[in-house]
Design goal:
The protein is α/β, with parallel strands linked by helices and 467 residues long. The protein has one domain: Alpha-Beta Barrel (TIM Barrel). The chain is built from 14 helices and 19 strands. Helix 5 crosses helix 8 and helix 8 packs parallel to helix 9. The protein is globular. The structure holds N-(aminocarbonyl)-beta-alanine (URP) and zinc ion (ZN) (3 copies). One zinc ion binds next to loops.
C-alpha cells in the first residue's frame, strides 16, 4: 500500500540550491519536487499535506560523531541509543554514525556486535557505525577488510589516551596502509597523548587540579603536532585522512596546508569549539567540569579561524562528538583531579539550531549550513544521496524548520539524558518544527510522534569525497 505526503510552500534548502518548492514523498522516499504554485506541483496528490509556508524544508541532519553509552573513565555516557536518538530527532537530526569500540585484546567483530546489540530496536532514527580500533594486529587488519565490505567503512584511531585507546605511530601507519588498500577512511583523534600525560602528571604535582587545567595541559601545539604527524603518516601510506573534533587554529593551519598540497585530508569541528571557550572551563565551583572534553575548548580567538576554515572548506563537517556525562555523579568523579573528569559534552540535540544561529550571525550561508551538517557528512561517510539531501530517490528524512521562532536552550526543556546543558540560557533564533524519518513523522509540530525501533541500521559505502 502506498503512502504519500506532500510538503507545500516551504523554501527547500540543500547544499546546492534554495527553491520554493512542494515536495512529494511516497513510500518513505522523496518522489518529486516542483516549484510551488506550478501545475506540476498542483498535480501532487497525497493522503497527508504539511503546510510549510514561511518555513524552511531541509534534509534531516547527519551527525557523524556520537558516543551513545560509551564506556569512559569508569562510567558510561548517559544517553542510551533510545534517549540519544530521540533527542537527536528533536533537534532535527535523522541519522547518526556512532562509534563501536574494539577493546584491547579483543576483535573488531566482537566490538561491533556489542554495539549492534545496544542499538538494535532502540533507535528513533537511522544509524550507522564507525569502528574504534584500539588494538592493531594482524587479525585486526584482516577484520578491517571485512568491515569495509559490510558497510563499516571508517575507523577511528587515537594518538591520545595511552593505555586505553592509544595507537603508536607504527600501528597508525599499518592501519592507514590497510585502509589505502580496502577503501576505508581513518578518522584521527589528533593529540600527542604521551606528551599530554607528562604535563598532566606535572600539573597535578603542582596542585593544579581544577577543570581549567585540563585545557592548559592539552596544548593547542600538541593538537597541531599530532595533526601534522597524522597527515604525513597518511601521505606515506597513500591513504586519505579525516581529523575529528579539530579545535586549535594551529591544527586548522596544518589541514589547510595539506589540502593546498592536494592531499586527501579532511577535517571536522564541533559546535562546542565554535560557541564555547576556555572561559567556560574556568567557571568556578567545579562548573568548568561540564565543559571538559578532548580535544579541549580553546581561547576565544580560535573560533574565528574555525569559522574561516568552514567557509573556505579546509573543514568540511560539523558533528557533535555527543558524549554526555551528568554533572552529578559523573563529572564529579574528577573533583580534586581534573584528569578523572569523564571527557565529553552533550550536544546531539543542539547542533542544527546552533549552526542555524551561525547563519543568522553571518558566519556561514544557509546552503553551507546544510552542506556541513547534512550533505558533507553523508558524502564523507558513504551515505549520499540516500541521506543528506532532498532529491528524488533519497530517503524522505526531512525537517520543517521555523527560521523565525525564538528559543532559549535549557536542560529543563532538552531531551538528552543529562542533567545540564552546555548552552544553558543561550537565546537562539530558529527551531525545528516537524521531522520526518523515511516519510514517517517523528516530531510533529513540536510533539514527539516517533518510536524506538523505527530507526534502522544503515550500512555505508566508502568515502564519496574520493570518487
Ligand atoms: O571528550 C571527548 N571527545 N569524548 C569522546 C571521546 C572522543 O575522543 O571522541
Ligand atoms: Zn576523540
Ligand atoms: Zn568522539
Ligand atoms: Zn516507524
Amino acid at each position: 500500500m502506498s503512502s504519500r505526503t506532500v510538503i507545500r510552500g516551504g523554501l527547500v534548502i540543500t547544499a546546492s540550491d534554495e527553491i520554493h518548492a512542494d515536495v512529494l514523498i511516497e513510500d518513505g522516499r522523496i518522489a518529486a519536487l516542483a516549484a510551488s504554485g506550478t501545475p506540476a506541483a498542483e498535480a501532487f496528490t497525497a493522503e497527508r499535506t504539511i503546510d510549510a509556508t514561511g518555513k524552511y524544508v531541509i534534509p534531516g541532519g547527519v551527525d557523524a560523531h556520537t558516543h551513545m553509552e560509551l564506556p569512559f573513565g569508569g562510567t558510561f555516557a548517559s544517553d542510551t541509543f533510545e534517549t540519544g536518538t530521540r533527542a537527536a530527532a528533536w533537534g532535527g537530526t535523522t541519522t547518526i554514525v556512532d562509534f563501536a569500540v574494539q577493546s584491547v585484546g579483543h576483535g573488531l567483530r566482537e566490538g561491533l556486535d556489542a554495539w549492534h546489540a545496544k542499538a538494535e530496536g532502540n533507535c528513533a532514527i537511522d544509524y550507522g557505525f564507525h569502528m574504534i580500533v584500539s588494538d592493531v594486529n594482524q587479525d585486526t587488519l584482516k577484520e578491517m577488510d571485512l568491515l569495509v565490505e559490510e558497510g563499516v567503512t571508517s575507523f577511528k584511531q587515537f594518538m591520545a589516551y595511552p593505555g586505553v585507546f592509544y595507537s603508536d605511530d607504527g600501528q597508525i601507519l599499518r592501519a592507514m596502509q590497510r585502509s589505502a588498500e580496502n577503501g576505508g577512511l581513518i578518522m584521527m583523534h589528533a593529540e600527542n597523548g604521551i606528551a599530554i600525560d607528562v604535563l598532566v602528571e606535572q600539573a597535578l604535582a603542582r596542585g593544579e587540579t581544577d577543570p581549567r587545567f585540563h585545557g592548559e595541559v592539552r596544548k593547542a601545539l600538541l593538537e597541531a603536532e599530532a595533526t601534522h604527524r597524522a597527515i604525513r603518516l597518511a601521505q606515506v601510506a597513500g591513504a586519505p585522512l579525516y581529523v575529528v573534533h579539530v579545535s586549535a587554529m594551529e591544527a586548522v593551519a596544518e589541514l589547510a596546508r595539506a589540502r593546498d598540497e592536494g592531499l586527501p585530508v579532511f577535517g571536522e569541528t564541533c559546535p562546542q569549539y565554535l560557541f564555547l571557550s576556555t572561559d567556560n572551563l574556568a567557571e568556578p565551583d567545579f562548573e568548568g567540569s561540564k565543559y571538559v572534553c578532548s580535544t579541549p575548548l580553546r581561547p576565544r580567538e580560535h573560533q574565528a579561524k574555525l569559522w574561516q576554515g568552514l567557509r573556505t572548506d579546509d573543514l568540511q563537517v560539523v558533528s557533535t562528538d555527543h558524549c554526555p556525562f551528568c554533572f552529578v555523579g559523573q563529572k564529579e568523579l574528577g573533583r580534586g583531579d581534573f584528569s578523572k573528569i569523564p571527557n565529553g559534552l552533550p550536544g546531539v540535540e543542539n547542533r542544527m539550531d546552533l549552526l542555524h544561529q551561525a547563519v543568522v550571525d553571518g558566519h556561514i550561508s544557509r546552503r553551507r549550513w546544510i552542506e556541513i551538517a547534512c550533505a558533507n557528512p553523508a558524502r564523507m561517510f558513504g551515505m549520499y544521496p540516500k541521506k543528506g539531501t532532498i532529491t528524488p530517490g533519497a530517503d524522505a528524512d526531512v525537517v520543517i524548520y521555523d527560521p523565525h521562532a525564538e528559543q532559549v536552550v535549557s536542560a529543563e526543556t532538552h531531551h538528552m539524558n543529562v542533567d545540564y546543558s552546555a548552552y544553558e540560557g543561550r537565546r537562539l533564533t530558529g527551531r525545528v518544527e516537524s521531522v520526518l524519518s523515511r516519510g514517517e513523522p517523528v516530531v510533529t509540530e513540536r510533539e514527539y510522534t516517533g518510536h524506538a525501533g523505527h530507526g534502522v541500521y544503515t550500512p555505508r559505502s566508502t568515502c564519496q569525497y574520493l570518487n
